[in-house]
Amino acid sequence: MTTFSSLKNHLLIAMPALHDGLFDRTVIVVCEHSPEGAMGVVINRLVDINMADALKAVDIQPSEEMIHRPVYWGGPVQPQHGFILHSPRGEWLSSLEINADLALTSSPDILQAIAQHEEPQRYLLALGYAGWGAQQLEEELKENSWLHGPLDMQVIFDLPASERWQAAARSMGVDMRLLSGAAGHA
């Protein structure tokens, strides 16, 4: 009998050997993980729209500087749906608590607050999410597809998207440039 160990509140970092076309060199915040499956949000892939475009698409008037805020590809599941990864957690209509300081919210009330420069202080908008069925993520971990470790708020919110993959690994003491693309099992 194996015991379940949740990776909620962790980062998943794609290993160099993962070349599936979707998740190459990605960093994912694991938002939920149970024996039934897992879901997370990719935090280092940008899409071709900005925050102002996203707000206009849902009839919210953005402020001028929103054109400089990127929007992320959160994953292949529900890519037409927006998810806000944010800190602090706050009180929103539809939020999933990740930890005491971080949540994932999908309700429009948070978008209105962002447009008005209210809470949350730190956030990113992702379109879609990554999802795994029962035991799927565990199998991918056994195949050495992912490195995992604790969340790092600086990696999530303070670094440019292009630096997050290497920085997330470095925060765990791993230099991705030194890893082989081949997996081995003892």
Keywords:
186 residues; alpha+beta; ten-stranded mixed β-sheet; 5 helices; 10 strands; 34% strand; YqgE/AlgH family protein
Q: Can you lay out the helices and strands and say which pair or pack?
A:
Layout: E1 10-14, E2 27-34, E3 37-42, E4 46-50, H1 51-57, E5 70-73, E6 77-87, E7 95-99, E8 102-105, H2 108-115, E9 122-132, H3 136-142, E10 146-150, H4 153-157, H5 164-170
Description:
With 186 residues, the chain is an alpha+beta fold. The protein is 18% helix and 34% strand. It has five helices and ten strands; from the N terminus they run ββββαββββαβαβαα. Strands 1, 2, 3, 4, 5, 6, 7, 8, 9 and 10 form a ten-stranded mixed sheet that branches. A hairpin with a 2-residue loop joins strand 7 (95-99) and strand 8. The longest helix has 8 residues, at 108-115. It is globular and about 50 Å long. The model has no long low-confidence stretch (mean pLDDT 91).
Structural class: alpha+beta
- Taking the alpha carbons of the first and last residues, their distance comes to 21 Å
Strand tally is: 10
User: Which range does the strand content fall in?
Assistant: 25-35%
Radius of gyration equals: 17 Å
Helix content: 10-25%
Give the overall average pLDDT: 91
Protein name: YqgE/AlgH family protein
